[in-house]
């Protein structure tokens, strides 16, 4: 529910009744006065309460949550969605049983959901925020795997004295590889190719 209509003896009372039901603060809503209160004749005849419509404001967080909830409902998945809002970004953790279908091969489905969530959450927003989604800690596990792969292939490039070419990766995963190896003085890394087939080359220094 993103809006309610409430009555009260005063406008403030009607608004407060609505805020309690929606469980939000006054800063989070838009208030429309539908009817002004009327004390009537002698405070008895023709008394009319105040009537207001209270609508929850659209935010990046609320739109992201609405988008993800729709996907989960369509897929009939029982999940818990945790949102952490920061100055320039929103971190979203999704937890629940059997969520491999949301991750996909090498996180491709997860990346697609994150991309669409960014489009949906920032639609018509004056201040945009980056949406980052993780499922059951997958991104941390994937990062650890990529770092181990980077160290192993860097050693391989040095031992064999020739370049090692990695499989195509998205920009986020390529950044993990580059960052993991940037402190080494025996190899260097660069990327080549066009998206989505852009790949990293680990080259030994001569």
From TrEMBL:
Coiled-coil blocks? none
R3H domain mapped to chain residues: 140-206
This protein's GO CC annotations: cytoplasm
Q: Name one GO biological process term.
A: cell wall organization
- Indicate the principal place this protein occupies in or around the cell: cytoplasm
* Record's keyword annotation contains Acyltransferase: no
| Pfam families noted in UniProt | Jag_N, KH_KhpA-B, R3H
Q: Which UniProt keywords apply?
A: Cell shape, Cell wall biogenesis/degradation, Chaperone, Cytoplasm, RNA-binding
What terms describe the molecular function in GO for this protein? RNA binding
Task: List the subcellular locations.
Answer: Cytoplasm
Stored InterPro entries: Jag_KH, Jag_N_dom_sf, KH_dom-like_a/b, KhpB, KhpB_N, R3H_dom, R3H_dom_sf, R3H_KhpB
Cited PROSITE patterns: R3H
Q: Which SUPFAM superfamilies match?
A: R3H domain (SSF82708)
Name the CDD domains on file: KH-II_Jag (cd02414), R3H_jag (cd02644)
Oligomer and partners: Forms a complex with KhpA.
Please report which protein family the annotation says this sequence is part of: Belongs to the KhpB RNA-binding protein family.
What the entry says about domains is: Has an N-terminal Jag-N domain and 2 RNA-binding domains (KH and R3H).
Q: What is this protein called?
A: RNA-binding protein KhpB
Which gene underlies this protein?
A: khpB
